[in-house]
Structure formats: structure tokens, C-alpha cells
Amino acid sequence: MAAGLRSTGLRVVARQHDRLHPQPNDWADDWVTFWAERRIGFQLQLAQRRGGHFPEADRLLAAIPRLLKGHRPQPALLHGDLWSGNAAVMVDGTPVIFDPATYWGDREADLAMTELFGGFPNSFYQGYGEVNPLESGYEIRKDLYNLYHILNHFNLFGGGYGSQANGMIHRLLKDC
């Protein structure tokens, strides 16, 4: 499957769904377009239809190329919903992950989500850093990547996720 990827593009395994919402995983020629249109833009559209109020949404979408400027990730097959609730250890010590929402993208998107809801043990991040050191600018990208999940949670559950998303958008716009 990976052999069909162009080095500048990202392609997904298949259109998939995250619980109640479709996740558009159509081809994008670059990561910036994929993230702006297929992740953040799509979730913002759903959120606005749901009654969400995101006054800085257009500014954020216009800022995504600046937030990701110079970042050209190699396509990696992502879990797509990698938080501690979707990981476990079998009795024999074998680590397992489950409930994937797979797509091809930036490895940092999965890593960012591991830090969103409780995190993984420090040994996970130390081992990860030894094998795949993080590139400069990860902290900003982490917030942008986790914004997708917060918007998705707003669309699924409502509540305080809307104000959390607005706070993240505001911080991201201050960074660019």
C-alpha cells in the first residue's frame, strides 16, 4: 500500500468513520492541504452546523500553511485515535493498540494525541525519541493536531469542548 505513495502526497487506506462522523480521507497532494481541508476545515464545518461558534475559524484555516511551514513529514500509517484508552498490555507483556481510525499522515499527529487525554508512560516518549527524534516546532504542531480531536469531540459530545477548541485556536493564532 505504501508503495503507491508519492513522496509529496498523502493517501489513506480507505474512507473510514470515527463513531458518528465520516472522516474524509481523499487524496491531498500535500500535508498542509490535507490537514486544513480534510481535518480542521471539515470538523469546523460540522461544528458550525451543530451550532458551534468559532469566530477565528477562517483566520485559523488561512494560518495553517504558516503553522506547518517547512514541515514536510514522510507519510506514515497512523492509528488515528491513539490515546491511552486505546492501548493496553496483554498478560504476557505484549503491547496492543485497538479501535483505529487509520490514515496516512504525519507521525506527529498520533504522537500528539497520546499527550491529549492522560498520556502514556514517560518510557514510551523516551523510547520514541530515541528512534524518531521530534523536529523543531513540534509543540505548535501538537496543538494544531490535537485541535482536530477537540473539534471532533465537540461534534460528538458538545459541552466544554467548544470553548477548549476556541482557546486552542486563539493560542495557535498567537504563534503564527
Top keywords for this entry?
globular; 176 residues; disordered N terminus; mainly alpha; 6 helices
Structure description:
- The protein is mostly helical.
- The chain has one domain (about 1-175): Alpha-Beta Complex (Aminoglycoside 3'-phosphotransferase, Chain: A, domain 2).
- About 45% of the residues lie in helices and about 10% in strands.
- It is built from six helices and six strands.
- It has a two-stranded antiparallel ribbon. Strands 3-6 form a two-stranded antiparallel ribbon. The chain has a two-stranded antiparallel sheet with strand order 4-5.
- Strand 4 (about 85-90) and strand 5 form a beta hairpin.
- Helix 1 packs antiparallel against helix 2 (about 55-65).
How many domains would you count in the coordinates? 1
**CATH homology group:** Aminoglycoside phosphotransferase (APH), C-terminal lobe
CATH architecture: Alpha-Beta Complex
Question: Which percent range describes the beta-strand content?
Answer: 5-15%
Strand order of the largest sheet: 1-2
Determine the N-to-C terminus distance. 35 Å
Quick one: how many beta strands? 6
Low-confidence stretches: 1-17
Overall CATH class: Alpha Beta
Q: Sheet bearing the most strands, described?
A: 2 strands, antiparallel
Share of helix among residues?
A: 40-55%
User: What is the average of the pLDDT values?
Assistant: 88
Q: If you consult CATH, what is the topology?
A: Aminoglycoside 3'-phosphotransferase, Chain: A, domain 2
- Secondary structural class: mainly alpha
**How would the global form be characterised?**
globular
| Global Rg | 16 Å
Order of helices and strands: EEHHEEEEHHHH
- Count of helical regions: 6
